[in-house]
Amino acid sequence: MKVAHVFITMPVGGAEDLVLSILRHSSEEQSAQAVCIRELGVAGESAARDGMPVTLLPLLKGKGKRFSLAAVWKLSRWLKQECIEVVHTQVYNAHVYGVLAAWLAGIPSVMHHQKTFNRERRRRWWIMRILSRIAARQITLSDQTRSDVIKALAVPSDKTRVLPNFVDDSIYSPSQNRDALRRSLGLPVNAPLIGGIASLNTQKNHAATVRMMQALQKRLPEAQGIIFGEGPLRDQLQAQIDSLGIAGCLKLAGNKRPIVPWLQALDVMVLPSSWEGQPMVILQALACHVPVVSSRIEGNTAVLGEDDPGMFGLDDDAAYVDHVHSCLTNPAFRQALIQSQGKVQDAQPGFASFLNQLATIYQLTTADRSPKPPPTPCPHV
Question: Which residue, among 92, 214, 219, has the nearest Cα to 149 in the 3D structure?
C-alpha cells in the first residue's frame, strides 16, 4: 500500500517527527512518503539529506495563506501519477489541501488530529466539517479529543479512532555517557542543565521559562538553561532575557537536528505550554529517561496522567520554579518524578504496535471504497 503524508512544509515539530519515524520504518507492504507543497522546512531538508522519501512539490509560492485551488488540482494529479492509495494529513493547512486533492483524485484520506480540539476557532470548525464529510477516517490522540471531534465536526463515531503517538525507541534512548556527550556538544559537564524544546510561539509559553530561570538563578546560580526551537517570538524572547539580565544562564539555541543528543544531555526537560495535543517531546524525553516538568493542561495530562508530580498550574510561576529547583536539588522529589514518569514510559507501545494499528486503519480506509473496475496499471510498478 502506498501512503502519502501531505504537508505544506515540515518544520521541527512533533507531527513531523512522527511521520519521519513512519517513513524510517516503511516496508514493501506499507510504503510511505512525505510530500511538501511549499517548501521542505528544517525537518524535511534534514530527512532529504538522509535519503528519506521526502518530496518537494512547490505548488504554493511565498508565505501567504491565500487558498489555491490550482495547487489542490495539481496535487491531485501528482497523487494519481504516483499511484497513491491513501493520503494522510497531520495539521490543519495540510488537511485543507491533502483531503481535497485526495477527493479529486478518488483516493481515500485520513485526517490525523495532532492537538486537542480548539473550541474557540469556530471558523475552522466549518471548514473541518466540510473536509470531514469527504475524509474516510479520522485519528485522534485521546478519547476526549475523539469525543470533541465527533460532536463538533459531526463525524460518525465508527470513522474515528484513538491512536496515541509513539516514539521510535531505536532513536530515542538514554545516553550511555552523559559527561562525554556534554563535552562533545560544548555543554558544561557539571552544571544543572534545563532545556525546553518547542517552536518559539505564544502557545509554547516560553516567556514563563524565562521568568522561571530568573527566579531559579537566585536559588541555584550555577543552573543553565537552553531553549531549542525557532519562531516568530525569537526577538521578543531575547529582549526579555536581556532585560532580566540572565543572558549568561539562558540561551536561545535555535533548531538542532538531530535533537536526540541535546535532549539526552539535559537534567530536566520543561514544557510550560498553554495548549498541546499529545506532545511528542514529552514522549521523547521519557524514552531518554529525562524527567519532565510541565504545565497542567489537557495534552500534557493525557500523556503523564493527572497525578504526575512534575506538573504545575499554567499561571503558577512559583510552582514552576519550585518544581524545577526540586528536580535538580531534592533527591526524593526527583526520584518520585522519575518513578512516576518511568511507569508512563513502560506503558508506551513500541513502534511496531503503532505501525500495526496504523496499517489496520489504512486497510479499513481502503475497504470503505465502493467496488470499481480494475485501475490502469501504474507505470512505476
Answer: 92
